[in-house]
Amino acid sequence: MRQRPSFWYAAPAFAFFALFAALPMVLVVFLSFTSWDGLGTPQPNGVDNWARLADDGQAYDAVGRTAILMVVSWLVQTPIALLIGVWAAGRQRSRAVLSSIFFLPLLLSTAAIALLWKVMLDPNFGVTQALGGPLGDIQFLGDPSIALYTVAFVITWQYVPFHTLLYQGAARAIPRNLYEAATIDGAGRVRQFVHITLPQLRYTIITSSILMIVGSLTTFDTVLILTDGGGPGTASRIAPLHMYITGFSGFEMGYASTMAVLLVVVGTGLSLLVMRVTGYRSMNSQQEGA
Amino acid sequence: MFRRSRTRPLIALVAMVAAVAACGTSGPSSGGGGPFKVWALQDPVLNPIEKTSIEGAGGALETFGNDPYKQKVRVAIGSPNAPDVFFNWGGGNLKEYVDAGKIEDLTPVLDSTSGLKDAFLPSVLNGAKIDGKYYGLPMRGMQPVVLFYNKDLFTSAGVQPPKTWDDLLKLVDAFKGKNIQPIALAGSQAWTELMWIEYLLDRVGGSEVFQNIRDKGPAGWKDPAVLEAATKVKELVDRGGFGTNYASVGYDVGGASTILAQGKAAMHLMGSWEYVNQLGQSPDFVKNDKLGWVTFPSLAGGKGKPDTVVGNASNYYSITKSSKSLDAAKKFVSTALNDEKYVQSLIDAGDVPAVTGVKEKLAKAANSQYTTWIYEQVEKASTFQLSWDQDLPADQATKMLTQLQELFLGKITPQAFVDALAQG
């Protein structure tokens, strides 16, 4: 009988997690009950920060924007990534070449992507201006009612390749005999997709959705660079950015920590909720007899 | 077969923990006797000059980018890794450190070193004066905010640069009629918008209004002059003064400066560094004498004097109280900053040092037309108001910049702007 590996093999991972995830989280919870401007020692102030958060209109707005960003990115990314992923799992002639092109954004760093789009959408010298026409009149980053959706678009452009990769791998793992049986039964491609591919990809959809949801909650660098810190005004100031500005421009570290704790709680809560609702934890096999 | 080994992973773990522990203690440790540490902002032009002067005094220079610098200083001051001397903006920004008891009082140094106090322009030296004591000495040029304009556009439109606010409004209409953006504004960054309301408040209500806000707290925003200045901002925006797409134009990427140089916009309110910027980015524009500059317009009926300036008076070197090389650091700031060679290098780099009596030196150096003008502006200015975002405590400054952007975007009314700020 094969023995399970010793606990020691997990120790490095545990040590890293304790040092770089658990410990900072404990410190942030502590700071959320203090007032600290970054100088001197944090002064405990009870639940002042939490009372302030409950009363902070800007924080509510920021959370609202994060929610919009989350829903929009999920709604847009999931179908695109799913379709491209399933397609890329096939054996078409053009597949390899096109897939490599689709995966290009995955090779670029977030900062590079944000700068790239910022320059392309520049209101004076951008590509949209060079193209002219009605496109040139749209203020993609300058119109407060559009900016957040531009951010969602750039994030989609950046992350679709990653989720495509997930779906491609999962779609490849679907046993071919399911499709062969369906073909014999006379099912067309659409029926095969709806009745075999989608159910078989169920757990991949859940995994990818959780990654997107948690990812949207923590998105930060793209927005920081793309809209110069949540602009125009506060139009794209999402919750993590609001936290960053409070903490590292306003140096209200205590209050910023309160927002951080809220984000951790909401993020953990959401992913637990998704897992519970979808039955992800039971991990039932979709394949009979396996 | 799978062989269990207890020792190997253990060794790996120990090695890893040791590596992590090493990370925690890395970074320069300041012991007595070594060179004193000076922290400054990254600047390709100034850094070599600073380095020469610092190393000549037995110190060592470390530089950082703008935003990381502010955060790094904040965290380091008061920790064992604090620099001995650090670059700052004076004003309320420095006051936070002074109030926390982290900064060495330099008044005794100024008093005991003969001629040192008179070596600097008083309005600039006062930028680091807090509660009657001096906590920093100016270490580079003055950066007042100036109204730049494109001479070609003014000539072809047959108009003169504005002397009064009404002139400016007429110019806005004139350039709009010619389909030229009247004023360039890098509105994605709030500090560019800040310059407009700083000058307007100075002209409307005089420099006391903001000093009152800074010294007595947010209730000072309720002064009627603030509402009037904010209303004037809104009028200028609504009149089309800044065109339609300023909200996503950035200064760092050169957006606003380029449209001025290319003749797409006629005017640009910016710090004096804009000249050096234009010289680098659009050399022909400057060399062919197409770049003009004037004082911010005066305002009929305003209480403020027309000769005040706003901007960054200078940058300062301050000394941390916990420094282990206090004497060396004090000797450095008291001798190196008005050193003739240092001042001359600053002038050669296009800076306008805040040192008294350099007008003749400026006249002999390159770009003298511009640098002597800047020097005179500051020399005769009755007040030099530091940029508000540097003069207010960080939390208030951050809120103020947010509200200001909303005002420029038309998301809030001037009254709502005042109310939001007065709330603190």
* Fraction of residues in β-strands of chain B: 5-15%
CATH superfamily of the domain at 70-237 in chain A: MetI-like
Biggest interface and residues each: A-B, 43 and 46 residues
- What class do helices, strands and sheet pairing of chain B give? alpha/beta
Strand order of the largest sheet of chain A: 1-2
* CATH-level-2 architecture of the largest domain in chain B: 3-Layer(aba) Sandwich
CATH class bucket of the largest domain in chain B: Alpha Beta
Report how far apart the termini of chain B are: 70 Å
Radius of gyration of chain B: 24 Å
What's the total count of β strands of chain A? 2
**CATH fourth-tier homologous superfamily of the largest domain in chain B:** Periplasmic binding protein-like II
Overall CATH class of the domain at 70-237 in chain A: Mainly Alpha
Number of strands of chain B: 13
Strand content of chain A: under 5%
Number of helices of chain A: 15
Task: Specify the overall morphology of chain A.
Answer: globular
